[in-house]
Write a structure and sequence with these properties.
The chain is built from 13 helices and 17 strands. By secondary structure, it is of the alpha/beta class. β7 (88-94) and β8 form a beta hairpin. Mean pLDDT is 78; it is low at 317-332 and 338-429.
Length: 465
């Protein structure tokens, strides 16, 4: 599969496995060859960006719903993406590969990326305004023929070779093996050269008309002596069958090594991919910061090292923001606020729920646990909720002990936390019962020493009576 999820970007090109596409949100289709559409079908349910010509073919060929297909004009810049902070500018450029095929020039916070897809370089690309003088941080390069020994003629030269083979067999019918899309220009040139119709299947004829090609194609058998068939039909058994009816030769226009199984099969080095020398010329002119091969498993970067730009590459910022460090004072204030919340919660739940009889020993132990509450009271007084008139911290500093008004403890249970402590001389005679009914926030304001002294006084008064 010739597809890529570009790291550090929300972009996926010719990659249709959403589950494996990580964080990709923008999906682009370079052209409609089958090795670039693996996983793309009628169930696709995300926006898909492509050229207008590819958009016309896409629904017809793969039944992709039209409302997900977003055609973008070639040669123009487009801003795509829904989030303002994550938008990408993309410019589509003709890749000279097959009808509708394009290169993508991406620009964003990640830098500038040129994704060639499958392409056949020509010197006219140097006149492309979007590429002229442009700094390219990452070049995703079609490396199909990226090998010094993989030399290819131009397509015009390869067309002349095909014409030469046909002329060398004047009494033969000619069958040309092509893919479902591509090599249409070769067929048109040969039809014009030899003044004949090119016979094709009904579905291919419909596609030729959709591509608005010259009217040299027909479905009528015998109307012409050149036929275009699927490349898979060019094999030994079909050649034997065809030659039993009429002398026939087959032409395979391809730049890849192919094993010939029949003497009447002729290879013509007609390729829609760039040759090695063309790739070198393209990279030398473009001077990208880095080259990344599109075809996996082929390391071709070494051939282009001398042509790369020496400028530092703009890399995407993939760092995760570090959390802000709290100062000691901020930590102290945060902890104080936490204690304040606990005190408030205790005050809200301190209203007596009936008489609960506990042994005096347990009450003494519990009161001992509250000896450290003064620090919490200090934090509480410093908060914005402090009421100096009733706050025990301020009253202890300014006035010492204050006498309570004649209110009963039960009546004061729902008051604020900032109430003054109850002095010992105002405890009623039934100290134990009244103590059990005293709100928790009032009990917390008496130290363990005060509690011990009050208990001793209570029992001493009981003995005297």
């Amino acid at each position: 599969m010739s597809g890529t999820v570009i790291p550090g970007t929300p972009i996926a090109v010719d990659f249709w496995s959403v589950r494996r596409a990580a964080g990709a949100r923008l999906f682009f289709l370079s052209h409609l060859h089958s090795d670039h559409t693996v996983g793309l079908s009628s169930t696709w349910s995300r926006p898909l960006y492509c050229s207008p010509l590819t958009a016309r073919l896409l629904h017809r060929r793969l039944q992709v719903p039209t409302h997900w297909i977003r055609p973008l004009e070639v040669g123009q810049s487009h801003v795509v993406g829904e989030e303002a902070t994550a938008t990408v500018t993309v410019t589509l450029l003709d890749s000279n590969h097959c009808p509708g095929s394009v290169m993508f020039l991406f620009e964003g916070a990640f830098g500038t990326i040129l994704y060639t897809g499958d392409f056949r370089y020509t010197s006219t690309m140097q006149g492309e305004p979007a590429l002229r003088g442009r700094r390219i941080d990452r070049l995703y390069l079609d490396n199909t023929h990226c090998h010094p020994h993989r030399s290819l003629p131009s397509r015009q030269s390869a067309t002349r070779q095909a014409a030469h083979v046909i002329r060398a067999h004047p009494r033969h019918q000619v069958v040309i093996g092509v893919y479902s899309l591509g090599k249409e220009t070769l067929l048109v040139d040969l039809a014009v050269e030899f003044r004949t119709w090119v016979v094709v299947s009904p579905w291919r004829l419909e596609q030729m008309r959709l591509l608005e090609l010259p009217d040299v194609f027909t479905t009528e058998e015998g109307a012409g002596w050149i036929r275009a068939v699927d490349v898979t039909e060019i094999r030994w058994d079909t050649l034997v069958s065809w030659n039993t009816l009429h002398p026939t030769i087959a032409i395979l226009p391809t730049g890849r090594p192919v094993k010939v199984t029949h003497p009447n099969i002729h290879l013509v080095p007609y390729s829609d991919h760039s040759s090695f020398s063309e790739l070198c010329e393209f990279v030398k002119w473009l001077k990208p910061c880095s080259v990344i091969p599109i075809v996996k498993g082929d390391t071709c970067q070494a051939y282009f090292q001398e042509y790369l730009s020496s400028a530092p590459q703009a890399l995407p910022d993939l760092k995760i923001p570090k959390p802000l460090q709290e100062s000691v004072q901020q930590q102290s204030n945060r902890k104080g606020q936490g204690h304040l919340c606990l005190l408030k919660r205790a005050a809200q739940h301190s209203v007596p729920r009936g008489v609960v009889f506990e042994p005096p020993e347990k009450l003494t132990e519990e009161s001992e646990e509250f000896t450290g509450v003064k620090v919490l009271q200090q934090n509480y007084c410093e908060s914005a909720c402090c009421s100096k008139e009733g706050c025990t911290h301020h009253t202890g500093k300014e006035k010492g002990k204050e006498e309570l008004s004649g209110e009963q403890p039960g009546a004061r249970a729902a008051s604020a936390v900032s109430q003054a402590p109850v002095p010992s001389e105002h405890f009623p005679t039934g100290f134990a019962e009244q103590y059990l009914l005293t709100p928790l926030n009032v009990l917390k304001q008496n130290s363990s020493q005060t509690f011990d002294r009050l208990v001793e006084d209570f029992f001493r008064r009981g003995e005297a009576s």
